[in-house]
Amino acid sequence: MSKNNVYQAPASAVRSLSPEEFDQYQLARSRNTPAQKQEARLRRRAVLIQSRYGIPAPIYLGQLQAQQFRCLGCRAHEKELGIALCADRDPDTRDLRGLFCHSCKRVLDTLRKRPGAARNLAIYIDHYQKI
Ligand SMILES: [Zn+2]
């Protein structure tokens, strides 16, 4: 194995391959690149999200990449969280509005019921952080 985790056969072995075997070898190598593994994981996840929640895979992946895999609230990256971001959807149209960590989603759902409370709490937090 080379340092970037791509399978590398000895050159002498590669030279002795038939054209069909060489194509298979190239295909096997390309499937082993970390970027392609990551992309395959993302696609599988998007398909799961689509089947489980009905959010079209391209929409989900587009939103995830637009947010750079970060929560719209606290900006934590999915890797830091160790768990996938939650979808916030329009209750009427079911359109995806944004992706949040579980903590931010819970706060968002609570504050959405009392929008005035969000402003009051923000003022309260600012006041005590300046002291
Ligand atoms: Zn968050």
Q: Can you walk through the features of this model?
A:
With 131 residues, this protein is mostly helical. The chain has helices at residues 11-15, 19-31, 34-53, 57-66, 78-81, 102-113, 115-130, and strands at 86-89, 96-100. A two-stranded antiparallel ribbon has the order 1-2. Strand 1 (86-89) and strand 2 (96-100) form a beta hairpin. Helix 3 (34-53) crosses helix 4. The protein is elongated, with a radius of gyration of 23 Å. The N and C termini lie far apart (57 Å). Bound molecules: zinc ion. Zinc ion binds at residues 71, 73-74, 76, 100-101, 103-104.
Specify the CATH class. Answer: Alpha Beta
Task: Give the overall shape.
Answer: elongated
Bound molecules: zinc ion
Following the backbone from N to C, one meets helices and strands in this order, namely HHHHHEEHH
| Strand ordering within the main sheet | 1-2
Spatial separation of the terminal alpha carbons: 57 Å
Low-confidence stretches: none
* Structural class determined from secondary elements: mainly alpha
Task: Explain briefly what this protein structure is.
By secondary structure, the protein is mostly helical. It has helices at residues 11-15, 19-31, 34-53, 57-66, 78-81, 102-113, 115-130; strands at residues 86-89, 96-100. The longest helix is centred in the N-terminal third of the chain and has 20 residues, at 34-53.
